[in-house]
Amino acid sequence: MKPKKKSVGARIGKAAVYALLSLWTLIVLFPFYWMVLTSFKSYSSYNAEFVPRFFVTDPTLANYGNAFSSVPLGRYFLNTLIFTAATTAIMLIVTVLAAFAFSRLEFAGKNIVFALFLSLMMIPNELVIITNFVTITNWDMRNTFLGLILPSVTSVFYIYLLKENFEQIPDELYKAAKVDGTSDFKYLVRVMLPICRPTLVTVTILKVIECWNSYVWPRLITDDKSYFLVSNGIQEIRENGFGRENIPAMMAAVVVISLPLIVLFLIFRSRIMAGVMRGGTKK
Amino acid sequence: MFKKKNLKAWLYLTPALLFLAVFMIYPLLDVVVYSFEEGYNSASQSYSGVGGFNFSYVLRDPYFLQALKNTFVIVLITVPVSTGLALLVALGLNSIGPLKKMFQTIYFLPYVTNTLAVGLVFMILFKKTAYSEGLVNLLLKLFGSPGVDFIDGPWWAKILVVCIYTVWIVMPFKVLILTSALASVDETYYKAARVDGTSKPRIFFRITLPMISPMLFYLIITGFIGAFKAYSDEVALFGTDLNAAGMNTIVGYVYDMLYGDSGGYPSFAAAAALILFAIVFTITCINLLVSRKHVYY
Amino acid sequence: MKIVLEHLTKIFKNLDKRIKEPVIAVSDFTFEIPDGSLIGLLGPSGCGKSTTLNLISGLEEPTEGRIYFGDKDVTDLPPEKRGVGLVFQNYALYPHMTVLENIMFPLGNLRGEDRLTKEEMRDRAVHAAELVQIEGLLERRPAEMSGGQQQRVAIARALVKSPEVLLLDEPLSNLDARLRLQTREEIRRIQRATGITTIFVTHDQEEAMSISDLIVVMKDGAVHQIAKPQDVYDDPVNLFVAKFLGTPQINVFSGEIRDGKLMIGPEAVFAVSGAEDRPVTVAVRPEGFLPAADGALSCELKRVEVMGRDTSVVFSHPALDAVQGRAIVDASLTRDLEPGAVRFSLRPEKTHLFDAESGERIRCRLTRKEEEHV
Questions:
Q1: How far, in Å, are A200, A270, B54, C216 from residue B177 at the CA level?
Q2: ipTM of predicted complex
Q3: Which of A120, A127, A188, A232 to mutate to test the interface with B (most CBs of B within 10 A)?
């Protein structure tokens, strides 16, 4: 009798858990649903709905056309793409070289320099951004890609992550390569990088997400619309874009901006989540 | 041979050192210098004296005090709420078998979305317009409440939206960390406890919680740091002129002092940034002290 | 190519910074390795055998001493200029490359006039693969192969540049027992086929004994004995070597030479000539015991373990340095043995005397009492 009673209780518990999880799913997904839904409503039908409808009777793609034609969304997109690609590429080169020096090479003062690197991880961006803003302004790099990219390429955390990963490669591989006369650089490129590819991919994706969503620095350093990234673009659209009230068109722009990262996430989801778990607190 | 080895290593380090020196180490020193230069003029790049005036100005500036208040309210509400909620969701996730992967994937989605973009969606959900009350207000009316304009209305309504949006944004990271922390608790502890007839609440408080306490404290500490730096969530909801909306945060104040219509005062910005850093540093130290007492490792 | 080591010494700083005392990994190693021979460096872990190998390969620089390959001083040459092939315990294969790519990798480093065309590289890699009989696996990746196959690939990779010297660091330790037997035969065969002077490091005495031309026994950085495998076993220079080689281990008694007789406890087991009276350590190989009613040594028999052709007789004796000793005896001689008192007569050629303090061998002639009577 007793075990049966327990199983009923357990079943109710299970149901409660699933109810809770479903509720949170709803809360997470609803904004996405609303944004897609609204983007397919026509301007007039959206404004005619005093009580907004949860479905769309005659979907229209007009908003998407609008998003690209009446504001330079394509331009913002291209800028973000250039910024993201360049920043990530330069960051990878700088980071890989430094991580290699720390993990594989011996030099005087290595431990002290590495400790200094680590202590830099604790410095909040907000503290250094003031001077960087002045520096870039003095260098006449406002409204240039260089000005956007340069202060964004350093990442002490990724150097640390890669160094840890490099150190997991057995010493014997390096010794074997040395006996065969492989240069350090060739060993790095031909052996270490291919072996550490998963970590490199993780670092790349995390940096791409960071770049794609970056807002503060681009906002400070660009006021010329032709150098806006998508985040600044969306803010610009919101404040001056289609006229304040064309919400369906705004939502179309939001969908377009969000889509690349969502697709990237769905493809690499386990890798992204594992990467974030290893300390990707930065957002 | 030895010298050559050294040289080569430094060569590999040069790019990183160069970038760090110019964009991190130098600015770090420079921000302190700025904060003590009184009457700095960014056009002529000259200053009239050295002293603590920048700090006292910032601390008396009503905009800064408003930002300080907003930031503290956001921190004190969102950190406990999001951490508790995340723990609840993570416990739920860990107790189920089927659909766990799917739920996890969905819950992580907000992490990869553009804060500014989704903030716009939250805005239209909460906003009252000439055409519509907004979805949230319609829901409130169902329960007999008169509704309120969350975006242009009273302060408490605005801060409430900010908190809701902030929690929505920070949940993915916390759920992810806590789910993996819970999953990594060794199954044998639970088996042993069940054999001893330990009740479920007792298992949770005496086994589960202590076992995940390092991760929990890590989340609380990073949560505090993150929440103190709140800025883009507010911009997403209320636009760039946060002072006008009465919704500015400390970080927002720093940027406003630096650039934009109210900008051109890097000294004030530097002082405000250092005050923020001091607050965050103090809170983190307190957190670490508390955690040392309570973390079971 | 003969290899000459002259006063080779390697001293490391202690990794534990609180200890100032440096670590002497290899101390004053002098030895000439004959051309085309297979040498086993044998010793317990931490004895400096791997460091010796690293010094010969050039991965580490000696603190003192010189290394010659043939007549050429290679002490200051970097590894790639020495013409050595190196094989590691964990194979150190590049996990992201196929077998063929792994074997070809060293050839890709050749520059200038040594540079080979793609076809030449491939030919040489395939040739090396044939030598170790893995030519059917060229497109596999390391993770898709057994440990034995991976070790063959590692050997092929070490051989592809036709090195003058082949160095193997614990080449068999990661293999299971069956593969270990097979692979060590294989190493012997390849070494014979190529005639390359080969040095391999191992902590496993059976491995060293079975395939080496010469064994170098090391401990704490010092060389204890260099000899042919059988000689190391039959004629150890000190107690460490005697105890390190042989399974089951040699039985060690404390004894004494008194009035020209070797005493273990109250019993005289041998007549001794050529050594003065002194306390000694007596070490007797397990096969040196013969159960005999009139044997000189009386022990307490614990049990008899049947091993087939032989039996292992477990006994105890107050003078023994361990709780129990072990004798290996022909099964026909142990049929009637029961737990309790048992007498053994000892075989003089299996009994070695060592200085009780230093452990150095005491060279002398032992004769049984009964032989004396004759």
A1: 21, 14, 40, 55
A2: 0.87
A3: A127
